[in-house]
Amino acid sequence: MITAAELKPGYVVKINGKLYTVLKAKYNWSGRNEATVTLKMKNIENNSMLDTVMKGGEKLEDIQLDHREMQFIYTSGDYYAFMDNETYEQIEVLKDELGDIVNFLAEDGIVIVSFYEERPVAFSLPKNVILEVTYTEPGERGDTVGNTLKPATLSTGYEVGVPLFINIGDKIVIDTRTGEYASRA
């Protein structure tokens, strides 16, 4: 058990039988009243958000997740398959459960899968991934001011703004937290 006052971003707790990951936790204490914690949490199973205020001493069930590094191996319809590189165990996950990470899943890409009671509940990517540009217009030299970007389609079908010097076939680094171009690979 853990008290609400001890919660920090990244903790996973069980509330009313549902798993939530803590995104923000702000501890509030005034001299007269009991301490409270303002929490912003995300439901792991359906990605809904929960904003709540709890008493600092309120006890919650702290959940320990098993994190495994897995490799993306193939898609089959709406299912994405991943393999544990240590045990060679494979799992299939519906595209809807993966959320936005499908935009950055390259063939043989690495995904950190979090398991709760042997069930995959959360998926995360490394900070940066390298993807190939499959389509972009040729860059025009001219009077540009500042950092001019043009649209580019990546090997996953995701569109991103890239600098004018990027061409079809170039490999680029994408920041998975923001979904933006970071650099040329």
Automatic annotation (TrEMBL):
User: Protein biosynthesis: is it a keyword of this entry?
Assistant: yes
Gene behind the chain: efp
Record keywords, A-Z: Cytoplasm, Elongation factor, Protein biosynthesis
Indicate the segments forming the Elongation factor P C-terminal domain, all copies.
129-184
Which residue spans adopt a coiled-coil conformation according to this UniProt entry?
none
* CC terms in the record's Gene Ontology section: cytosol
Cited Gene3D superfamilies: 2.30.30.30, Nucleic acid-binding proteins
Q: Could you say which protein family the record assigns here? A: Belongs to the elongation factor P family.
Under InterPro entries, the record lists: Elong-fact-P_C, NA-bd_OB-fold, Rib_uL2_dom2, Transl_elong_fac_P/YeiP, Transl_elong_KOW-like, Transl_elong_P/YeiP_cen, Transl_elong_P/YeiP_CS, Transl_elongation_fac_P
In Swiss-Prot or TrEMBL terms, this protein is called Elongation factor P
- Where is this chain's protein located in or outside the cell? Cytoplasm
Which GO molecular function entries does the Swiss-Prot or TrEMBL record give?
Answer: translation elongation factor activity
CDD domains membership = S1_EF-P_repeat_1, S1_EF-P_repeat_2
Native organism: Tepiditoga spiralis
User: Could you tell me the superkingdom of the organism this chain comes from?
Assistant: Bacteria
**Primary role:** Involved in peptide bond synthesis. Stimulates efficient translation and peptide-bond synthesis on native or reconstituted 70S ribosomes in vitro. Probably functions indirectly by altering the affinity of the ribosome for aminoacyl-tRNA, thus increasing their reactivity as acceptors for peptidyl transferase.
Which GO terms are recorded in the biological process aspect for this UniProt protein? Answer: peptide biosynthetic process
**What metabolic or biological pathway is this protein involved in?**
Protein biosynthesis; polypeptide chain elongation
- The Translation elongation factor P/YeiP central domain sits at 67-121
